[in-house]
Structure formats: C-alpha cells, structure tokens
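Deliverable D5.2: sample structural annotation.
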Amino acid sequence: MSFELEDTELVAGQARLKRNRLAIAANILTIAKTGALKTHLMYNGNLSYSMLRNYLNFLHQNELLDESYYPNDKTTLYHTTEKGVRFLESYLVLNELATPTAMKESLIAQSAKMP
C-alpha cells in the first residue's frame, strides 16, 4: 500500500479535497481509539467493506491497530494501539504543517484551469 499526496477535484464548480491513503488510515485510527466495531469503522470512515478490509490488514500488520474478540457477544472490537496513537499524533502535526501550502497551491492550480 503506497501513500500519495492529497489531490483536489472540481465538482459542480467547487474544489473538493480527495482523501489520501494516509488520511484514511488516520481516520480509522481516530475512530478506533475508544474501540469500534467493523461496521462503525466502515460507516464512520465512509469506506466500502473491501476497502476497510484492506486498511484493517495494513494497520494490523504494522501494529497500529489491534482486535479483541469477545466470544460471548460474538463481536470483534478494533482498538488503536500505542504505536497507532503515536502515528496518529505525528500525522496530525505533519498534516497541520503541510496542508495550508498544499491546499493553496492546489486551489490556485484548479482555478487556473477553470474557463
């Protein structure tokens, strides 16, 4: 799984920011901080089931997300690990530093393409 920069697209004359893979991973980790079911991650993260499965595998393999199975309830809860919390904190700092410049450049480029 690779990560690329966020991109903008014009929808109905307005710039709309697409989420990159890093942003989606950070969103899942944020939702799972207090524990979340797979359906909560899917709906709150606005992801399809197949996309969620790919991200869960990636986050679990990199020890950013952990799962706990409760046989009595037949449910699995997903929790952000300590490493995942550190990743999320770093992502938020870097995103805050990078976003204003990237957004301005992207919006200027998009507006220059408009007729």
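Annotation notes: The domain at 8-100 is CATH 1.10.10.10 (Arc Repressor Mutant, subunit A). Residues 82-113 form the longest helix (32 residues).
The annotation will be released with the project's public dataset once the embargo ends.
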